[in-house]
Amino acid sequence: MFNPEAELITILKEAGIDFTASLPCEKIKTLLDMIGEKFPHLPLTREEEGVGICAGAALSGRRPAMFVQSSGIGNMLNALLSLTQFYELPLALFISQRGVYKERIAAQLPMGQRMPGMLKGSGISYSVIGSASDFSMVRKKLVEVYKKNLVHAFLLSPAIWEGSEARVQAASSRLQAPSCKPQAASKKLHGANAKPPHPKYTRYETLKIIAPWLKGKVVVCNLGIPSKELYAILHQPSNFYMLGSMGMVTPIGLGISLATDKEVVVIDGDGSILMNPGTLATVAFSKPRNLTIVAIDNSSYGSTGNQLTLTGECVDLELVAQGFGVHNTVKTATKKELIAAMKNKTGGPQLIHALAVSGNSDAPNIPLGHIEIKEQVRNFLAG
Q1: Are strands 91-96 and 151-156 parallel, antiparallel or unpaired?
Q2: Tens-digit pLDDT profile for residues 230-281
Q3: Contact between residue 236 and residue 215 where contact means Cβ atoms under 8 Å apart
Q4: Contact 279/49 with Cβ under 8 angstroms?
Q5: By CB neighbour count within 10 A (0-12 exposed, 13-18 middle, 19+ buried), where does 382 fall?
Q6: CA angle, residues 113, 118, 119, in degrees to nearest 5
Q7: pLDDT tens per residue, range 2-13
Q8: What is the pTM of this model?
Q9: Within this chain, domains 4-174 and 203-381 share the same CATH topology
Q10: What topology does CATH give the domain 4-174?
Q11: What does the domain layout of the chain look like in residue ranges?
Q12: pLDDT digits (tens, 9 = 90+) for 339-352
């Protein structure tokens, strides 16, 4: 029986892969169904968030792999370079290579044909897998990925699966998603037609208020000035300071929360969340009870000159989270409300929409290298 999907899955298991994430591609639909059956697996809303989630899993000692099609590479290059490669985290990318072999969709040609050059120009090593006979190359390269903390892409030709006799049951009957039913708008602190409460504190002051409830927890902090401020207020080995990859804070925290039982707190911002709002849907689906997202909303891009974000005009991040299915939410503006939210023990995922006043402190640069930051967090997660 010709079953290249099963052969590849055997190789993945031999390599110790224990965390997978994917976006669909028709050419590998059977493989993806089988991946969902055989491995811990997370469906994604966007390729870029998958890079962040897999980075969090890798920090926690997991061996992650992502399955996407070639068009998705364009959505993830920055995160691959400024997060996964920068922090030297392992990631195996299995890419359904479109636009090359018997392609019928013209829109797949530009990315599919240019993808090898894009990977090479980005410094991402890759292997072209043209048939099942090339799977020995996958086995060999996977050893290097997890031993040397590398990013490596496997370009899977549609020719591999021609004639496959693999069969699985329909994915829709196997996917046991937690309840993600929409709920009514929150009225905990303000009515549906009322103006939101007026913020009283800057981001720095907000971090000082919640600092006692961050001690001993894994804290993933937004890039730029927020990380500098957290370091000045409460440095601890369990703090993962983002130095790049805007929009990846909540995905990294989600990946960690799914790979550990330790409590995880994400310090995110309005600009960052607006860049990858679909991650809130993934949070709602995966339902990690150990995850709290503190969305500090000062209606501005604080690290780039306090330019306005749309939360100051037309977007309510708490309602956005609820719309994506995150039920445990609260909006805060006062010290009392912040403390009450941080003390909440009802279980996650929880989103605290912390309204804040625009402005930055003069916190100095973080005197740690990025690899030192990674290793401290890894050691903490390893116990």
Answers
A1: parallel
A2: 999 999 999 999 998 999 999 999 999 999 999 999 999 999 999 999 999 9
A3: yes
A4: yes
A5: exposed
A6: 110
A7: 999 999 999 999
A8: 0.93
A9: yes
A10: Rossmann fold (3.40.50)
A11: 4-174, 203-381
A12: 999 998 888 899 99
Please say whether the beta carbons of 92 and 17 come within 8 A.
yes
The residue among 40, 3, 50, 13 whose CA lies nearest residue 254 is 50
Beta strand residue intervals within 47-145, DSSP E: 64-69, 91-96, 125-129
C-alpha distances out from residue 190 to 136, 197, 270, Å: 60, 7, 20
Q: Which residues pair with 153 in a beta bridge?
A: 93, 126
What are the pLDDT digits (tens) for 20-61?
A: 999 999 999 999 999 999 999 999 999 999 999 999 999 999
In sequence order, which residues have a C-beta less than 8 Å from that of residue 252 and are 6 or more positions away? 52, 53, 55, 56, 59, 83, 220, 240, 242, 266
Choosing among 3.40.50.300, 3.20.20.70, 3.40.50.970, 3.90.1150.10, the CATH entry for 203-381 is 3.40.50.970
Please state whether beta strands 300-301 and 218-221 pair in parallel, antiparallel, or not at all (unpaired): unpaired
Q: What is the amino acid identity at position 370?
A: H
